[in-house]
Amino acid sequence: MAEVHVLAIDLAKRSFQVSGTARGGAVLFNRTVSRSKLEQLLRGQTPCIVAMESCATGHYWGRVAHAFGHEVRLIPPIYVKPFVKRQKNDAADATAIAEAALRPNMHCVTVKSAEHQARAVAFRTHQCFVTRRTQLINSLRRHLAEFGIVVAKGPANLKSLMEMMDDATVDLPETARDIVRLYLEQIELLTHKVDELTLRLRDAVRETVEMRRLCTVPGVGPITAGAVLAFAPDLRAFSSGRNFAAWLGLVPRQHSTGGKARLGSVSKMGQHDIRKLLIVGAMSRIRWIVRKGVLPDNWLGRILGRKPRMVAAVALANKMARIIWDMMTHEQNYRMA
User: Fold this and answer.
1) How many domains, the chain?
2) Residue 144 domain-assigned (yes or no)
């Protein structure tokens, strides 16, 4: 029997489809393996190329396969889809992964370490708690509006609502008061947890050189710096700052043909967390400039003079991404031009 050259794994929760391919491309086997036996298969397999889609558990199994001496290739699912033949099933997916892994120009994802993923979990937890708190505040404001009580937006305006619930003159049924207090307790708990996670991210700025270096960029704070270190691979994997900006989805979408270039809106093809935070940071810089009343005589000022603010914010976020790539690859702090 020919030796396995590519071991393609279609990842799942309990059962995994494994396809073994020879060096010439012939399929040697394509079978289902349980979760408990997948690690045994990787341990007993002679070193080969282990190909998987870059999904939630791909990095964990990539580390497991790498520990057994295999070469790991994590392929974005969008690059695997063109190789699926007709019907969609696990066997066809595993075969498509093997074919995609054999392409010489295929772009693969770098396997993240456990510490790298832990930073991503901390950031996502912070964002999840902030989103959940916003949902609770909006629900509470909507319920109170039915009784004619209008509360301003934001968690900072909830202190007056706490005092209102203790005021007997406020026309509100006692059942509704109990529900409002329940909302306020949950919002206060989430606010406490959000503040703890924010302080943890700020403490990380003092501990790591990379975080301190990123925070020197105008418009980049501890949250954005933490997102860059949590979700972006080693920036040296990108050949230029433009490639990093393209990976973030901050470059125009192309629909060019016949030698005629057609550029549309930003592609949004990359990491949405970093892209969103860079645009938010760019918009905060633009608001500060507009608030001064006089546009600066530089690149950003000229863009603001002829383009909408959001278009200028995306352009500035693109420039910030290129600056971040240059700083991190050359290990230099930000210098004002």
Assistant:
1) 3
2) yes
Residues 15 and 70 reside in one and the same domain: yes
Whether 123 is in a domain gets the answer yes
**Of 73, 101, 129, which residue constitutes the final position of a domain?**
101
Asked whether residue 277 is domain-assigned, the answer is: yes
d(CA 244, CA 270): 9
Rounded-to-integer distance, Cα 240 and Cα 221, Å? 23
Structural domain of 145:
114-207
Determine contact, residues 285/219, Cβ cutoff 8 Å. yes
Q: pTM, whole model, 2 decimals?
A: 0.79
Per the listing, tokens 């290129």 go with 322
Residue 118: both structure tokens together: 């832990």
- What's 51's domain CATH number? 3.30.420.10
Task: Please write the tens of the pLDDT for every residue from 234-286.
Answer: 888 888 999 999 999 998 888 888 888 888 788 878 788 899 999 999 999 88
d(CA 243, CA 275): 14
Same domain, 194 and 229: no
Residue type, 312: A
Helical (H) or strand (E) element with 50: strand 49-53
Does residue 16 contact residue 9 with C-beta atoms inside 8 Å?
yes
- Same domain? 140 vs 229: no
Count of residues for the chain?
337
Strand order across the beta sheet in which 71-75 lies? 27-34, 15-21, 6-10, 49-53, 71-75
Q: Would you tell me how many other CB atoms lie within 10 Å of the CB of residue 336?
A: 5
In a domain, 58, yes or no: yes
Q: Which band of pLDDT confidence, cut at 50, 70 and 90, is reported for residue 199? A: confident
Residue from 154, 200, 314, 331 nearest 250 by CA: 314
Alpha helix (H) residue ranges in 146-251 = 158-165, 174-207, 209-214, 222-231, 241-247
CA distance 265 to 176: 47
